[in-house]
Structure formats: structure tokens, C-alpha cells
Amino acid sequence: KKKKNPITGVVGLSKLIIDSDNIDPQESKMLMQEVLNSGERMNELVNRFLEVQKLEAGNTSLNVTEVDVKEVVNNVNTLSKPLLSSKKLSLSISETGKKFTIEADEDLVFDAIQNIISNAVKYGEPERTIDINLKSSKSTVSIAITDHGYGISIEDQGKVFEKFFRVKSNMKSAREKGTGLGLAYVKQIMQRHNGDISLESSSNIGSRFILTFPKKYTPEQ
Q1: Which value, to the nearest 10 degrees, does the dihedral of the CA atoms of residues 155, 158, 163, 164 take?
Q2: What is the pLDDT of residues 127-185, one digit of tens each?
Q3: Using an 8 Å Cβ cutoff, are 166 and 178 in contact?
Q4: 11 HSE (CA, 13 A, CB side)
Q5: How many CB atoms lie within 10 A of CB 174?
Q6: pLDDT in tens, 3-44
Q7: Which of 202, 200, 220 is nearest to 210 (CA)?
Q8: How far apart are CA 52 and CA 40, in angstroms?
Q9: Cβ neighbours of residue 114 under 8 Å, at least 6 residues apart?
Q10: Which residues, other chains included, contact 169 with Cβ-Cβ below 8 Å and sequence gap of 6+?
């Protein structure tokens, strides 16, 4: 199934509104809402694509500061509450070790965690608990996010970090809307921090994404 171009929707619906002389005001409003929805989807797609391209090109300098990953996870949790409650989901946060501070770009750390949690909400049934485990070792801090959702087939696991790839092996996953750029963006964030992202998936856990950041930031050569 090919990715639909939202501009096609904007052009087609706009033409329909212009060409219809005696259009009912209620119907006109519904069509305009569809135009707006298509425009917003295109905006999201273009913005995310530009974010990935900027990071890939390496022409954005990172604003590296001391970042408390535990605090970032709590901020993402707070901001995700409306999204979580809409599907009757909860987050369970656990910790292994102490001191979850890293040298990183806080906005990008937030974006990486938020993207994975947003996917965890999207790709699974209602009334689940999403597990987040923070782990601090001598030189790294990792965030493991387990969604207990639909899971990702072995065949698709190698492709999920590619730009525009969307999981189609699971019918329920394929039905969810998305840009196919979220994980490509997260991968770029991790690479810019000399970190790592890995994925485990099975019927028992759904999908588990593990983000690993070095505690000390070393600029790329």
C-alpha cells in the first residue's frame, strides 16, 4: 500500500468546494475540515523530514548541557497524560542504578523519548501499561520502553529505522496514521550523541526500544 500524498487531498477537496455552486454550509464545513486535516498531515511530514535531513547533514550544532534523563522522562510522562488517558493506558517507570545525568542536547533527548512513547501508545490495544526502565551504568544511561503492543515482525525489524518505512506485517499497525519518519529521526538523534538505539520484539513484550546515551558527550570528528 503506497503512502497517500496529503497534497492530493488538499487539491481535490479545494477543487470540489470551488466547483460546487449550491453546496450545503454544513457539507462545506466538513470538506474544509478534511482540507485542514490533509494540510496538517503534510505539515507534520515536511517538518519531520526537515528535522531528519538537518541532523543527517550534521549542520545543526547541538546545544549540549547537563541533562537529567529521569526529569526528561517525567516531563514526557506529564505531557503524554491526555494521549495515555484517551486509550486508558498507564506508564510504569522503574530505575536501576543512580544518577541519570548525561551531557546532551535536552530538546533532542526529549524528542527521542517522546517519539518512542508516542509509538508505544499508538501501536497496541487500549488498557495496557507501558514500562519504562531507566538504567545507569558507569559510562551510559539507557531508557528501555516496552509497549506490550502489536510487536514487529523479524522481517520488519531491520527496516523500521529507514526513512518512510511503515510496519505493514501487522494489519492493526498498518491502519495507524504516521509519517514513517519518527524512528529515522530518533536514530539520527542517537547517532549525533554517539549513542545507540536497539529493538527487541516478541509476542510476550510487544516491542521494546532501548535508547543508550553515553554520559560524556564527545563531538563527532
Answers
A1: 10
A2: 999 999 999 999 999 999 999 888 776 666 566 656 554 555 554 444 445 445 678 88
A3: yes
A4: 4
A5: 12
A6: 455 566 667 767 777 777 777 778 778 777 777 776 766 776
A7: 200
A8: 18
A9: 76, 79, 80
A10: 152, 153, 155, 156
Which cell is 186 given? 530518533
Residue listed under C-alpha cell 526500544 = 209
- C-alpha cell of residue 163: 526513512
The full length of the chain comes to 221
Give the single-character DSSP code of 52: H
pTM, entire model: 0.71
Cell of 76: 514526557
